[in-house]
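Batch manifest line 279
LIGAND: S-adenosylmethionine
JOB: complex structure
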Amino acid sequence: MPTEPDSRPHGPHASDPTVATAARVYDYMLGGTHNYPVDRAAGAQTLRSFPLATLVARYNREFLQRAVRFLTGAGVRQFLDLGSGIPTAGNVHEIAQADAPGSRVVYVDYEEDAVAFGREILAGDADTRVLHADLREPDAVLDSPEVSGLLDFGKPVAVLMVSVLHFVTDDAEALEVVRRYTSRLVPGSYFALSHLAPPENSDRSLALQRETNKVYNSSVAENLAIRSRAQVREFFGDAELVPPGLVLLPDWRPEDPSYLPDDEDASRQMGVAGVGRIV
Ligand SMILES: C[S@@+](CC[C@H](N)C(=O)[O-])C[C@H]1O[C@@H](n2cnc3c(N)ncnc32)[C@H](O)[C@@H]1O
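JOB STATUS: finished
ARTIFACT:
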């Protein structure tokens, strides 16, 4: 599948309130307040092309939260959240530490505002760090004092790449980046991922996704890449997919006993998610 060239140079970025960013547009979609007029304009433009984008963002965020609850239930006490975004209610550390006090979390984002808001919220939490870095530079991330000083890679760690790999638009680079992180994990570690991936058997939803991407890519600093579900599956490599496997976002271990998959819900079809166990 053709992908767009990366629009952003590698490395952590300084805040520029005149350019919309993925972090702030996502915050806007989730109803957050850490965004500028330029982000709201880009978000509104995206919503005109795909009005259900806010629901996709919510489904994604809820997957992240269920995945963290699953992981603490599986005994994981260390989390590396890559492309963590602007902290909003129900962050990884809040869920992990509520379920398993003492859980350690390192948040990583290359967007200065996301990092600044994160540091503000987390000041005084000795078990949590925020790293301003580009996840496409795995060695710099893994060897940073924030990560190596808090997380012990001799024990299980959960690496989270939730709604972020579609911003690494080069397919080979995205696979290599994931491999570089997962190759540092001991057995019993986990890798959780969600990714935009419209259904391949529906021309309508592919066209819709392409149109939405065009709008998004023309107004936001990052470009989004569309990937097939088979391509997303490849990110898991040899990891063992936790049941129910790689599935639509809201279908991954729903906690609401009354949840019923709705095939008419176009937002539900737009992204997939899964958790892999390193064996
Ligand atoms: C859509 S948000 C997802 C936030 C969070 N993971 C979630 O799912 O709720 C994507 C985040 O990834 C960050 N991001 C994108 N590319 C990145 C990169 N190369 N390195 C670090 N962060 C990146 C953006 O700044 C943004 O905050």
